[in-house]
């Protein structure tokens, strides 16, 4: 389709057109760079629009000459069916976190020890942006692929979406372009971009985003890039992956400058400093500037500037040894409690939730805070209409830290535990001495039913993609399902008639439901939502009893013979299988086709019978990682030191446990010794790769 406009350059020969197009693209790319990256435009918006229009017209006259890196190709294309996976040849690592100055000093000390050097270390300090990590590959200077971080080794191909981001060049600038260059950075949405996005969503009656990070992640993971193109996404690059055909500078700061020269946007707050005191000064400076920055940062990152030293240090588990994130403390604000509601959980537990006068804290609007339970309310002496200090820390639900008693108004009212369930009106049971009050409605209570089904479908349980919380609520409300057993009866016709569900999504959901039927015994047990049976207990049960009939037949005593399972958990399990309606649900699920492979015996458990306690911060792995490694080898990890402890593992700042272990004469492993200890079993670890039973 040829547009005939006054701007038409026809008749042009193909060659001339090619040259014109190339020139226009180059001009526009350079203006884009000046405008979006340098924030220093050379021409007016109107002049820019004219150039763009010229390119559009010429491309429509010569459609076969449109290139993938043309600035016109940012607008977004037809939706994809699904994301394809991308393997990261060089893993996309995460960062170790530090929350106080001592941890930074310790980090620096470890670096000195590892490098066997007394020289003051040079660090490159950068803001830690709160968005999502992205890896972008340029071949001969042209953007060919963009992928999310995913689990670090496998991400998702989001090229179509990334190309809509104006701060990301589709074509690198300059003559010094490497053959292959993979750059890594953070995609984010600015504070104003976020506000505008939510205002627009509110106007259209759509769901608003909780914070800029969610908005950025949701926008990048869109199948329809036309939606992404409307989102105010930006980027800062902070590193490289694969590089071919170029010798990069041997300092991290030099690499970033090199990226900048190619037209890749880097932070304007980079600083190269000597030693930790200067790092800490940078931290304080950035913390002070935080509120006036146009985007959210949740801390700063210190990176050893010398690349040779980075290489010497390497990485451990999922983070490099040469970098550390120094996180800002949790944010606290004052607001008032407007009301308190009680939410009913999967097991009937009532959680009081404070509805707050909305407050904006560093990019997030807070309007709810958990009050945990009645004891907590009493302890903190919280009343409705009180002015309270609310803390937001990372992703967790905001919490009320304290009440400003001097501000308590005369009409402040006490928070009273309801007598009846706010959802199903069954009586509420509050056993003396127990923190939690519960609805006695069981699966008669729609709230408990909904939560049970949400849990069943969740990622770590049956992993039914597409059966999210909202959909479960809708399905229960309109009575299409009332227990987990009903979800496999859902039909295409029922699903496609639901509000906000097209035929395609309905088909996808049915496919996912079918896929979920093939599971593991442990996942199935966890999915059932038996009280006190979390993932770890489910795994132990699966491993011990191997089959469902064996588990169902187990007495409380037999259940207690499994390590870690005490009388309370055993009673809950036995009770669950005694209830006929639970057995009916299980029967129906199996009849619907839910199945699993026979549980494999894990014979390589050299640490079976050994109990470990971990104290202090381990430099090379998180406690959860250490725990997982020990458990895979058959070891048990306990919370306190006793005569039964086989080893105490100490990290940085070990506490009272260290003293107690010394008193009891328990063998102690420091972080290095622990590394060696684990390495001894490394072969076992790598051979234990089978999907956990
Ligand atoms: S460097 C090998 N630098 O933080 C080092 N990461 O918590 C990998 N992030 O996944 C990351 N700003 O998404 C680095 N200046 C910065 C960063 C940064 C934000 C994110 C990144 C990473 C996460 C780790």
Task: Explain this structure.
By secondary structure, the chain is of the alpha+beta class. A hairpin with a 2-residue loop joins strand 15 and strand 16. The longest helix is centred in the first third of the chain and has 24 residues. The termini are far apart. The N terminus and C terminus are likely disordered. Bound molecules: 2-(butylsulfanyl)adenosine. 2-(butylsulfanyl)adenosine (IVH) binds next to strand 3, strand 8 and strand 13.
List keywords for this structure.
693 residues, alpha+beta, Helix Hairpins, D-amino Acid Aminotransferase, Chain A, domain 1, OB fold (Dihydrolipoamide Acetyltransferase, E2P), 5 domains, five-stranded mixed beta sheet, five-stranded antiparallel beta sheet, 26 strands, globular, disordered N terminus, disordered C terminus, binds 2-(butylsulfanyl)adenosine
